Amino acid sequence: MREPVTDTVSGSSEDYPYTQHAVSIKGIPPDMAQQREILLRQKLEIESFIALLPESRQRRIAKAVIEHGKLPPWPKIARKLGYPPSAAESLRKTYDRIFTDCK
Predict the structure, then answer these.
(1) Of the residues 11, 17, 77, 88, which has the maximum number of CB atoms within 10 A of its CB?
(2) 3-state helix vs strand vs coil in the chain, percent to 5
(3) How much is the pTM?
(4) What angle do CA 102, 72, 86 make, to 5 degrees?
């Protein structure tokens, strides 16, 4: 990812005597801003999808997987949700069913 765009502009104090001074501003490049907007929309779609899942167990599993950022080792997800590692296969099947039921 690229570094933020930085620039210096002139500003003045809010109160009298309104002395002029340099102000540093930061932002992201325009092409990165567009990509950020796309990613934010995708994030909202994913969160909406998870919120509409009928069972709280499905929502918890989906949210834990999404927070991990990629398909995780299932024993790790089981521990995170308070299940024993032996429940990992059950969690994986529940997660898989979320998407097979949507088709």
Answers:
(1) 77
(2) 60, 15, 25
(3) 0.65
(4) 90
pLDDT of residue 18: 81
- Distance linking the first and last C-alpha atoms of the chain: 35
**b/e per residue 20-59 (b: at least 16 CB within 10 A):** eeeeeeeeeeeeeeeeeeeeeeeeeeeeeebeebeeeebb
Q: Enumerate the β-bridge partners of residue 22.
A: 10
- How much is the pLDDT for 103? 61
Spatial neighbors of 5 by CB under 8 A, at least 6 apart, are 26, 27, 28, 29
**Residue 96: both structure tokens together:** 């898989």
